[in-house]
Amino acid sequence: MKALVISGGGSKGAFAGGVAQYLIESEGKDYDMFLGTSTGSLLIPHLAANDIGKLYNIFTNVNQHTIFSVNPFNVRKKGDREFVSINFLSTLMQFIKRRRTFGESNALRRNIKRNLTLEEYEKIKATKDDVIVTVTNLSKNRVEYKSIKECSYDEFCDWIWISCNYIPFMSLATRNGHEYADGGLGSVVPIREAILRGATEVDAIILESEHMEYNKVLGKNPFSLMINLFGHLLDQVERGDIIMGKQAAVNKDVKLNLYYTPTKLTENSLIFNKKLMMKWWAEGHAYAEWRFHEFKSNELRDVE
User: Fold this and answer.
1) Are 44 and 230 in contact (CB under 8 A)?
2) Do the bridges between strand 130-137 and strand 178-182 make them parallel or antiparallel, or are there none, so unpaired?
3) Higher pLDDT, 219 or 73
4) I need a surface site. Which of 16, 105, 156, 179 has the fewest CB within 10 A?
5) Which of 212, 280, 291, 196 is CA-nearest to residue 245?
6) For the CA atoms of 159, 160, 165, 170, what is the dihedral angle to 10 degrees?
7) Is 300's pLDDT higher than 80?
8) Rounded to the nearest 10 degrees, how much is the dihedral formed by the CA atoms of 267, 273, 275, 281?
9) Could you tell me the pTM of the whole model?
């Protein structure tokens, strides 16, 4: 059973889209199972439905307005770089309303239901073994994996949305008496889960450079510094996921192919810039071609 796993990574999901497009369209990869976290959960239903053209149009047109109903950010541009600072007015209103998050992402929830139709949901259930999104149950302090096979259409759209809710900047959701948030808080790259569910070959797209050796530019205000801090913590979760995934692959004799980003794409993946995302999609497609043939060359050398 072949599985495609896509990590969290915000706007960097455009790079994953390019990688997946090459593997599916150019190399004819026919995946049985799809697993995603955060931005990965946005991508996998459309990949499972094999509508990559639609996915490209949706993802490269994502912006702050399609995500936030209450936007806690101001995005400022200085030269070729974009920076995030706090939107004091919207944040103050959240405090006045006694909300527990700086922003709200109900616009993203509406956008998911608008773009993933009931017909596509039914097609995926009929043609694929499974599509699974990762969420974090904060009430139970555990990671949960929500399968399309176990959810109604409305429930599945909600779990995709919840998987993307990067708190405290986006909505905190309550379901079945429990509070849920971004799956990346517990599992950024669910490789091990794919193997536990029976995958014998896994292609994992990791939206971070392999060695992650670079100096981060820390925020100049408490708000942007908090974003940097959360990013650092998610990097540690991601490292653990990759180590456990590799160990599980060795123990179960699973073929595991890892597709990293070759460079650091952005300092802040919460900034959605159409021009950059189109560029990253093309870079992901080109990188996947190179990486795929590198895997093939290594296999041939091992046979010899």
Assistant:
1) no
2) antiparallel
3) 73
4) 179
5) 196
6) -100
7) no
8) 70
9) 0.92
Six-digit token pair at 231? 């990013």
The one-letter code for the residue type at 197 is R
Structure tokens at 295: 């895997």
Residues in CB range of 138: below 8 A, 6 or more apart: 172, 178, 179, 180, 181, 185
Residues ≥6 apart with Cβ < 8 Å to 77: 83
- Residues 130/136/140/143 CA torsion (nearest 10 deg): 50
Tens digits of residue pLDDT in 45-73: 999 999 999 999 999 999 888 999 998 88
CA torsion sign, 273 to 274 to 276 to 277? positive
**Residue-wise pLDDT tens digits, 271-291:** 888 999 999 999 999 999 999
For residues 94 and 70, give the distance between their C-alpha atoms in angstroms, rounded to a whole number. 9
Q: What is the mean pLDDT of residues 103-108?
A: 94
Q: Which amino acid type is present at position 135?
A: V
* Helical ranges in 206-221 per DSSP H: none
- What does the chain come to in residues? 304
Contact in structure between 76 and 124 (CB atoms under 8 Å):
no
How many C-beta atoms surround the C-beta of residue 255 within 10 A?
13
Distance between CA atoms of 183 and 143, rounded to whole angstroms? 7
- Of the candidates 41, 186, 182, the residue with the CA atom closest to the CA atom of residue 105: 182
Cβ atoms of 220 and 21 closer than 8 Å? no
d(CA 125, CA 97): 40
Query: Do the bridges between strand 201-209 and strand 178-182 make them parallel or antiparallel, or are there none, so unpaired?
Result: unpaired
Q: Which residue type sits at 79? A: G
Task: Extract the tokens encoding 22.
Answer: 């090459």
Q: Are 280 and 39 in contact, with CB atoms under 8 Å apart?
A: no
